[in-house]
């Protein structure tokens, strides 16, 4: 396969996955992320198909730096300060829980892998922010392709079980030891339809996505160029931290913050990354190390959730707030709506989305901090 054709497949397949998720229930059930990883792994391990590794590496290394600013442009930093004290406290406790859990589990598994401290940092990134943060931390720490794919896959599988808990019995369980949310306003299904109609592609939305992409590319270029100018080489941790900081600075502009479609475009960039990294995975190595990575990820999630809710009980945070901030940190903004709906509490949507974006803002910093603290 030529390099151009390979790049077109890597960039174009996520569009097909999103289209399939809209019309095919099985694809919607497993999700576009799983489909993109699976397609990438299949493509990379097909006998006789000569993929060019440098092309996949280049696409994967460009996708995440572009995704970070696109996802962060919608961040409303001043709004953080207007959140209820209990919401901010619960978000902080969730972040602390993820950091402590990843560190404890990493130290416990230190003799099982040379990359244990990198895995801890990546899991802090994803369980305080999102997939973009996990992959940014992994790129900054130069984690192996196999660990990239395995950790992303393990995160999907383990968190699917937790999501099932959240949308079924989590509220009843939490209410057994946490206070009830005061004055819930319930849920109006008509507003869901309005939100769906607002997501339809229009000229305004397309223009907003184009401007967001250009601004994101500018931020990436400035970060990479500035790092090379000052340090003499492209140091990935410095570049990614600069990208995050500049994107947050840009989000203070209302014009940037309200660019339509920027978040969706960032999400698409992450799917491109999933396909590209999947093609780099060696199926034989995945089989050899898979179980350990799943155990590592599962232990971090379980300990993090238990510690977060124990601290929530200590500080008397209500059940719904604890559940929605747990959703915001572990899953990110995309899952706030479904969980708030399951809790029958629309008031949680704003605080959930805001803390989810807060997680995107701090996840890379926290993930790299924990990894560097644990580094042997």
Give an account of the 3D structure.
The structure is a single chain. The chain is globular, with a radius of gyration of 20 Å. The model is unreliable at 187-198 (pLDDT under 50). With 376 residues, it is mainly α. It has one domain. It is built from 19 helices and no strands. Helix 12 (203-231) packs across helix 13 (236-251).
Q: Topology, pairings included?
A:
Layout: H1 3-23, H2 25-30, H3 32-45, H4 53-72, H5 77-80, H6 85-108, H7 116-128, H8 131-141, H9 145-166, H10 170-174, H11 189-198, H12 203-231, H13 236-251, H14 254-257, H15 262-279, H16 283-314, H17 319-330, H18 336-342, H19 348-374
Which percent bin holds the helix content? Answer: over 70%
Q: What's the mean pLDDT score?
A: 84
- End-to-end separation: 41 Å
**Net shape:** globular
**Assembly type of the shown chains?**
single chain
Sheet of most strands = none
Structural class, please? Answer: mainly alpha
- Number-wise, the strands total 0
Which tags fit this structure?
376 residues; mainly alpha; 78% helix
Quick structural overview:
By secondary structure, the chain is mainly alpha-helical.
């Amino acid at each position: 396969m030529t390099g151009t054709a390979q790049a077109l497949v890597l960039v174009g397949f996520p569009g097909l996955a999103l289209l399939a998720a809209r019309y095919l229930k099985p694809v919607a059930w497993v999700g576009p992320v799983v489909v993109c990883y699976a397609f990438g792994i299949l493509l990379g391990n097909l006998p006789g198909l000569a993929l060019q590794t440098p092309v996949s590496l280049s696409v994967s290394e460009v996708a995440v730096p572009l995704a970070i600013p696109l996802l962060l442009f919608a961040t409303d930093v001043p709004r953080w300060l207007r959140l209820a004290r209990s919401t901010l406290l619960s978000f902080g406790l969730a972040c602390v829980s993820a950091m402590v859990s990843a560190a404890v589990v990493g130290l416990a598994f230190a003799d099982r892998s040379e990359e244990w401290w990198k895995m801890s940092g990546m899991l802090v990134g994803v369980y305080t922010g999102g997939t973009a943060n996990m992959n940014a931390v992994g790129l900054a720490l130069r984690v192996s392709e196999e660990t990239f794919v395995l950790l992303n896959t393990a995160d999907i599988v383990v968190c699917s079980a937790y999501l099932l808990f959240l949308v079924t019995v989590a509220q009843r369980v939490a209410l057994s030891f946490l206070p009830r949310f005061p004055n819930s306003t319930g849920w109006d299904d008509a507003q869901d339809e309005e939100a769906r109609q607002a997501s339809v592609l229009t000229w305004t939305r397309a223009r907003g996505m184009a401007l967001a992409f250009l601004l994101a590319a500018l931020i990436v270029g400035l970060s990479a160029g500035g790092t090379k100018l000052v340090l003499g080489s492209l140091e990935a941790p410095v570049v990614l931290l600069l990208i995050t900081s500049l994107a947050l600075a840009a989000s203070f502009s209302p014009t940037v913050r309200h660019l339509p479609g920027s978040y969706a475009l960032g999400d698409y960039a992450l799917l491109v990354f999933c396909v590209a990294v999947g093609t780099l995975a060696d199926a034989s190595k995945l089989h050899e190390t898979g179980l350990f990575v799943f155990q590592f990820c599962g232990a971090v999630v379980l300990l993090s959730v238990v510690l977060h809710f124990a601290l929530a009980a200590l500080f008397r945070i209500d059940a719904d707030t604890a559940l929605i901030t747990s959703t915001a940190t572990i899953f990110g903004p995309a899952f706030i709506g479904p969980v708030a709906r399951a809790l029958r509490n629309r008031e949680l949507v704003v605080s959930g989305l805001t803390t989810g974006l807060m997680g995107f803002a701090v996840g890379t910093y926290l993930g790299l901090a924990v990894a560097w603290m644990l580094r042997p």
